[in-house]
Each structure stands twice: as C-alpha cells, then as structure tokens.
Amino acid sequence: MLFRSKLAGGIAHDFNNMLTAILGYASMIQEDAPARSAIRDQALQIRRAAENAAALTHKLLAFSRRQVLQPGLVDFRSMLGNLLPLVRKAAGEDVSVTTHIGEELWPIVGDSSQIEQSIINLAINARDAMPKGGTLQISAHNAPFPDGQPRDDFDVRPGDYVQITVTDSGIGMDDATRARMFEPFFTTKAPGHGTGLEIGRAHV
After folding, report:
1. CB 106 within 8 A of CB 131
2. Helices and strands in the chain, H and E counts
3. Does residue 20 register a pLDDT over 50?
C-alpha cells in the first residue's frame, strides 16, 4: 500500500508539471486566435481537457495522502519574469497584470513547478472573478519573522521568509465561501469548468 501511494503521488506530481505548460500554452493560443474561429474553440477544448486531467491528479494526490515535492532554492524574481507572459495570457487581455518585487529579494525554498502552477491558477481564478476586466498584482518582499514575535494568522516557526501576495480587483468571496476555501476539492465553479487553486492539498 505504501508503494502504491508513493507511486500515485509521484505520477500525479510529474503529470501536474506537464499540465501547467499545456494549460498555459492553450490559453495563449486561445487569446491569440481570431474571435469565433475554430482554432479558438479548439484551444478552449484543450484547456478544459487539461483542467479535467488536473482534477484526476488531485484525486491521485488525495489517494497518496501527500504530495511528492522536489524542493530547492528558487529565485522568485527570475521565475516570475519568465512566467509573466503565461500569466498575462491566462489572465486575458481585459486584465492588467502588474508586479512589485522588493529589493534584494531572498531566494526561497520550494518546488518551482508547484509555485508556477499556483501562480497560473491564481491568474485564471482572478480572470474568472473579473468578467469585465480589472487589475491583477503579484508582489513579493522579504518578511523576517523574529523569535518571539506573535502571529495571529497561523503558526509558523521563526526564520527568514519571503511573502508572496496575489491580489485582484474582482468580486471577491462571500463569508460562506471564505469559510470553506481551504477544504480539499471545494470549488465554486460549475462541473467541468476549472479545478480550483491548489495550495498544498486545498483547492479554492
């Protein structure tokens, strides 16, 4: 059973990496194609199929009871610079994407593919929350947490952290949605339309 769990988690992790690229480029094709063209519709079908495949990987991750991560040192400023074209395409032409990165940003320890996937998913969610367009901002700054400093939001060990914030000018979440946003597999989207945001094993 342990072997099968590790296998499922490993396959899901690698598949998620590939789906990030598929979703990104499908969004680019969809945005670049002429309105009401067959290519635009085909790109939409590719994106929906990839989103459905992502839902399957989420089930595999739930079966494995953990995600198989490959953490390493990540230069978020460089990563975001390379990812920004995909973010803008995923957000759509009616959404203005801006960034604000603090000076001398520290490297972060994390799985680069998971970070990229989370940013892309946030951009897609922001687009859906701004049907008439708006602004999406991605910011990052050093956030040291000295020993003894209280934290009201969550329990975290003292250390040097980088805080990444993604905000949009969309409709936001009501109290009922906000209360459930970290429940596994919870989504406000209709069946077949998106798989939610992956934060660890939580989906919004």
Report:
1. no
2. 5, 7
3. yes
Counting Cα atoms < 13 Å in the Cβ hemisphere of 68 gives: 19
CA angle 70, 76, 79 (to 5 degrees): 80
Selection from 42, 38, 21, 53 nearest residue 192 by Cα: 53
Which residues are CB-contacts of 17 (< 8 A; sequence separation ≥ 6)? 113, 117
Best CA proximity match to 14, nearest among 57, 73, 49, 46: 57
Q: What is the pTM of this model?
A: 0.61
Return the pLDDT at 166.
Answer: 93
Distance (Å, rounded) from C-alpha 113 to C-alpha 117?
6
Angstrom CA distances, 59 to 41, 53, 96, 117, 173, stand at 28, 10, 33, 17, 25
Cβ-in-10-Å burial (0-12, 13-18, 19+) of 13 comes to buried
For 134: left if phi > 0, alpha if psi spans -120 to 50, otherwise beta; the answer is left
Q: How far is CA 176 from the centre of its chain?
A: 22
Scanning the structure block, which residue is given the tokens 């920004």? Answer: 84
How many other C-beta atoms lie within 10 A of the C-beta of residue 118? 19
Cβ-based burial of 122 (10 A; exposed 0-12, middle 13-18, buried ≥19): buried
CA 170 to chain centre: 17
pLDDT at 99: 95
- In whole angstroms, what is the distance from residue 115 CA to residue 74 CA? 9
